[in-house]
Design brief:
Layout (H helix, E strand, L loop, with lengths): L3 E4 L5 E6 L5 E8 L13 H8 L3 E2 L2 E2 H10 L3 E6 L4 E8 L3 H14 L4 H19 L2 H13 L13 H4 L4 H11 L5 E7 L3 H11 L20 E6 L5 E8 L8 H12 L5 H9 L6 E7 L4 E9 L4 H18 L3 H18 L3 H13 L7 H9 L3 H11 L5 E6 L11
Parallel strand pairs: 2-8, 9-13
Antiparallel strand pairs: 1-2, 3-7, 3-8, 4-5, 6-7, 10-12, 10-13, 11-12
Length: 415
């Protein structure tokens, strides 16, 4: 086994992956809470709590937290997603005990003071405004709400202005008590480390309230063709076309990775070659897929001048239809598989990448595979598999989300 795992008596999971050739460690405290665990009334609270963890504890101010990590020569950051929140540090191995102590203090003892909540919610509101000024980012949330309008995965991670504006100490403290319990916590680390030493540090320092793992309600979203157009005065039409994908443990997830690579996963992909290289209709065009515990999404993004939007959408649909009808070629299969392997190996050369992989997999209940096992699964993908899955995934129930200086009537005929 390439990793070590211990579940403490209180329910906290510690998982580590040693790397003998480095002197650094990446350490993350993961909590099984994200935007899908929020009600519409507290949309954005997971992300808000992430901000508040850096605003001080009874024994440290926000400035002292930052200064402590500066003295350690460490990187300190956090991120929130639809299914988890992570607080992490990357630093040289000799300072690991200090990092565990400070990160634990932040997560366990965050003050969530009222004045800090009021000032930080203004920061988040500015973040939302900044996000709304970036349509190539905003269109992703528009797509999620279009594809899964009645599913919690359709909620925006960053929240909405009308909900964030009401966040205060009481709301933040209640959310923190409800979700930051031992059963929801995973500590992941990778690099120059000893597993038992980290287990001992976590047992001593990370004293969050005891509680079972949060039981997340799983539901398959109801899919049907849907269109959303947000009319804005933009230079480009930002287009996301896509369908419901596969959950994280689905047996065909490696087939979907290959299918993604063939359609729009790189410069040699069909979409890049057809839309950018041959026709010059877009600078950015690509496909991507995301796995969640109970469902997933598969989508294509393109940014193009508004006058070209209809043509680009038609080209996306044409390439999808070709893949559904004819499948991939043997040359495409070989090229994409080798590309995926290469990118994966290069990506796992850093301690942070490895920590993120094991932490994310553990906190979401995924299947943690070794590099050799992943390569074996990829090599097992056949042309028939790709053809079969394309027919299943691209079944006509697609969603189309667009931010552009036109209305729905300009593209409604494409549905």
């Amino acid at each position: 086994m390439f990793y070590d795992k211990t579940v403490l008596d209180n329910g906290i999971t510690v998982i580590t992956e040693p790397m003998d050739t480095v002197r650094s460690v990446a350490l993350g405290i993961w909590c099984s809470v994200g935007s899908r665990d929020e009600s519409p009334a507290d949309a954005g609270m997971s992300h808000f709590i992430e901000h508040m963890m850096f605003k001080g504890t009874p024994t440290r101010t926000a400035a002292q937290i930052s200064e402590s990590f500066d003295r350690l020569g460490a990187e300190l950051n956090a991120f929130t997603s639809k299914e988890y929140t992570c607080y992490y540090a990357r630093l040289i191995d000799q300072h690991l005990p200090e990092a565990v102590e400070i990160l634990s203090d932040m997560v366990v003892n965050a003050s969530l003071a009222q004045d800090a909540c009021l000032s930080e919610r203004e920061v988040v509101l500015e973040e939302i405004s900044r996000y709304e000024d970036q349509p190539d980012d905003q269109v992703h949330e528009l797509f999620a709400s279009t594809l899964m309008p009645s599913h919690p995965l359709g909620l925006p991670v960053i929240g909405r202005k009308e909900t964030v504006s009401g966040f205060d100490h009481d709301a933040a403290a209640a959310f923190h008590r409800r979700h930051y319990t031992t059963g929801n916590i995973v500590v992941a680390a990778s690099g120059a480390l000893e597993h038992q030493a980290i287990v001992d540090m976590v047992r001593e320092r990370l004293t969050v309230p005891e509680g079972p793992r949060h039981e997340r309600v799983h539901a398959t979203p109801v899919t049907e063709p849907r269109l959303s157009v947000l009319t804005k005065d933009t230079e480009q039409a930002h287009i996301l076309w896509g369908v419901t994908g596969l959950p994280a443990r689905h047996e065909d997830r490696f087939v979907l990775t290959v299918l993604d690579g063939v359609l729009g996963g790189g410069m040699a992909s069909r979409l890049f070659q057809e839309i950018r290289e041959k026709r010059g209709l877009a600078y950015a065009v690509y496909s991507f897929h995301s796995h969640y515990q109970d469902t997933g999404e598969f989508a294509v993004y393109a940014g193009t001048r508004p006058d070209n939007a209809v043509q680009v959408i038609e080209l996306i649909k044409t390439e999808v239809d070709k893949l559904t009808t004819d499948g991939a070629t043997a040359d495409e299969l070989d090229r994409v598989r080798e590309s995926i392997k290469g990118q994966m190996i290069l990506g796992l050369e850093s301690t942070r990448s490895r920590m993120t992989r094991i932490g994310k997999t553990e906190v979401t209940g995924g299947e943690l595979l070794s590099l050799d096992e992943i390569i074996e699964r990829l090599d097992a993908v056949t042309l028939d598999d790709v053809h079969r899955l394309a027919g299943q995934v691209f079944n006509g129930n697609h969603a189309l989300a667009i931010i552009a200086p036109f209305g729905e009537d300009a593209v409604a005929h494409l549905m």
